[in-house]
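Handoff note, outgoing to incoming analyst
You'll be picking up this chain. Sequence as last confirmed:
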Amino acid sequence: MHISEGFLPITHAVAWTLSSAPFLVRGISKLNAVRDNRYLLAASAGYLFTLTALKLPSVAGSSSHPTGVALGTVLAGPAAMPALSLIVLLFQALLTAHGGLTTLGANVFSLGVAGPQTTWLVWRFAIRFGLADKVAIALATAVGSLAIYTCTSLQLALAHPDPSLGVAGAFLKFAAVFSVTQLPVAVIESLFTMAVLRAIVSSGGVRIPGLEAWAQR
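Most recent structure output, in case you need it:
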């Protein structure tokens, strides 16, 4: 998911940075609002960092790995995720050569905006339509993870359109290659996130309406 340094034209890098900026401003405000719950923020950031550090080689200029956004989305809300993603991505770009500085805005948009917003919407709609809590969480995690790679595929396609098939053709090619690794990874991540979230809620560290009874079963 992390687009590496130099793989986006400067105009694209600037455009994605500007697109991410409003979400980052709101995310920082959200972090300030919940900063008293350090347990919640630490769990969300640690989970995000750990899973995104498990990178697998993927299409040129990017990588495939679990995304880790679902836990923070449920615990802290989707608005906080752009800021948490920025911290994690900046640390990884500077110290682990994972991602890049010029591509930071694009990576924040996919990991911190597209993924969490999709995860939140799927989770809330799944609950509203009567799905069991654990099913709703697993489904939201998997779909949110795939949404991140769909966004990254679009970012790469816009920057590197296919000579004959254009942006649409490039998007399909990038998405198809990502799917080889990301589909099974998304399923595994959904099961793991469900187990971790259940353990956190059952420990009493955080209250999430509707999940306490499920966590105790």
